[in-house]
Amino acid sequence: MFNVGDRIVYPMHGAGVIEGIEQKNLSGIPEDYYIIKLTSGEMKVMIPVCNKDLVGLREIISKDEVSKVLEVLKNRETEMSANWNRRYRANLEKIKTGSIYYVAEVVSGLTIRDKEKGLSTGERKMLENAKQILLSELALAQNMDEQQVQTIVEGCLN
Fold this sequence. Notes:
single chain; 158 residues; alpha+beta; Thrombin, subunit H; Methane Monooxygenase Hydroxylase, Chain G, domain 1; 2 domains
């Protein structure tokens, strides 16, 4: 179980901080909910404590793991399907896992694809979403703001 103040990752949305644990009676049965303030934007989400594993909540990576993530971003050897539909589905599945390493693979692969051949509108939106998820977690892990982390990430991708 997570506690108030824990820094966590909510797959598909990014990193945040647990601001509270409240009991709500939404379906006639009292249930505890995590109140999570996501770092990007002003969004707050409520997640039932009993569903934390189902939705994939996890702690953010350690400072030591940040360098491994940056190495994934520097990797130029990514295999992606030439078929945009298969590529999109494969990348979406990677993001849904909640693994920052898979999210970094998606960011790296789509950035390379964008430079070489361009991206469809859907893939461009996916790239921006994956970057935001990546930046939010790296910023919390490094105790930096997202602009500083974005500069580091862009350096790895170029």
